[in-house]
Amino acid sequence: MEFLLSLHGHLRWLVAAAVVAAFVAAVVALRTQRWSTTRVWLVRSVPILLTLQLLLGAVLIVWRGNDLEWDMAALRIQLEHAVTMLVAVGLSHMLPRMLRTSDARRSAARAAIVLGAIGILIFVGVVRIRGIGYWFSAG
């Protein structure tokens, strides 16, 4: 189980990079009023990676829940993290549909807003599980 926990922890950096890259791609598409194939795939990678994280997290929370005999007080922080991230995953699954509209400016603006919201939710979810010092410490 340590391997899955480590994988889940390290994959978060790939997820964060994908969200930032997709946000930049959406802003560039908004300015150029055109979606390139690369930009579209950057945005499409976000729900794929977040869903993979969700699956790993679900396995981890079930494992942890069984270890703690589903003591909800002991699982509170993990459950808050899971719910926050579940909302982020749900938002991410709206992104591919946004790219299907014919108005590139409108779809890029919407994608940028949703990607910003996803980024904020990810930040809040990680702060909830790891603490704010995690983002500002050197190690």
In short:
This protein has 139 residues and is an all-alpha fold. Helix content is 85%, strand content 0%.
What does this 3D model show about the protein?
The structure is a single chain. The chain is mostly helical and 139 residues long. Helices cover 85% and strands 0% of the residues. The longest helix has 31 residues, at 2-32. 24% of the residues are buried. The model has no long low-confidence stretch (mean pLDDT 90).
Oligomer: single chain
Q: Estimate percent helicity.
A: over 70%
Mean pLDDT across the residues is 90
The amount of beta strand, in percent, is under 5%
Main β sheet profile: none
Give the beta-strand count: 0
* Global Rg: 17 Å
User: What is the 3D shape?
Assistant: elongated
SS-derived structural category: mainly alpha
Regions with little confidence, pLDDT below 50 for 5+ residues = none
Strand/helix succession = HHHHHH
Question: What count of helical segments does DSSP give?
Answer: 6
First and last CA, distance: 23 Å
